[in-house]
Specification:
- This protein starts with 15 loop residues before the first strand and ends with a strand.
- 25% of the residues lie in helices and 23% in strands.
- The protein has a single domain, classed as L-arginine/glycine Amidinotransferase, Chain A (5-stranded Propeller), CATH 3.75.10.10.
Length: 379
Amino acid sequence: MGAPGNPVRGPVLGNLRLPAEWEPHAATWITWPQNPRDWPGKFQPMPWAFAEIIRKIANSEDSERVRVLVGSAATLHRAEAQLNKAHVDVSRVDFFVIPTDRGWMRDCGPCFVERVGERVGERVGERANERDGENEGRIVISGFGFDAWSKYQDFTLDAAVPRTIAGLMGFDLTPVTRQGRLVTFEGGALDTNGRGTLVTTEECCLDPLVQVRNPGFTHADYEAVFAEALGITNAIWLANGIKGDDTHGHVDDFCRFVNATTMVLCQEPDPGDPNHAILEENRELLEAARLEDGSRPEVIRLPMPAPLYFDGQRLPASYANFLITNAAVLVPTFNDVSDRLALGILAEAFDRPVIGIHAVDLVWGLGTIHCLTRQEPAG
């Protein structure tokens, strides 16, 4: 259990690498559900859905730790009791009392990067001298801003999460700035192969009218930020995200790396579904894309589930919103005939077991497993 730490100051960014998600983790971070407005009318089953995700991570062989944010001591006790009932190995779970507004960790949580090839500056925070050796000072945080996807007003607590975690854990954090201002960017807006290539979308980054994170930014501005803050040398720009995506274009809902040279891209065969044209345009862009070494990525098509609605609203149901852990790949499923096909395709693509997690209730929050989590690399 933790509490907010000291202000964080870090060294100048340099010699950084954004690890791929399949590389070893020290931990996975997740926020215990506490805002009923994220799942209106469906909040009651959320703690049990989260407990199942945590159980699959904590109880597996070669497992990593699970670090869980809770809003209060009372919430901590409730969460621990529910995890025990779900037979979670709570000896592998760390709780931190850090209040949040919504708590979609992929987007508001720390952007962990690896510093390579130079001596790391002084770690800061009350516990810096007491840390175990799991990161050896090589994992640092690139401090992006967060503004609730430039859509909602309640984000002050969420925006403070990376700095609070840095202070508690003793990580260096350096704010990511461009043109004299903090750069707003979310983890779900990118995916990487760990070798210098990143994939993102123009809809999320460059739309001048809708959910504008960084007004006036161009491709060149973002690519300069990616290079400085993430060590990215090569950016693949796709066009638009899928329908129902509240974030306005996050790439982790439809296109992901599964290894350094291979990507999965969702496919919608029904020409009457608006996702068909969106995903085919992205397919054409990927066919012309190059990796950091100049080679073309291999692209595997991943099915989409049938359109899923709740209370008249289309939801961003997608098998691409999977989480890669040390021991397995956790894939959202939707009681759909395509569930088995999607799991089979991903099982052939990965070097570890692929496990389906029921996500029909989760996706009413407009995100599923990847959106809820953030990996901490082992360094």
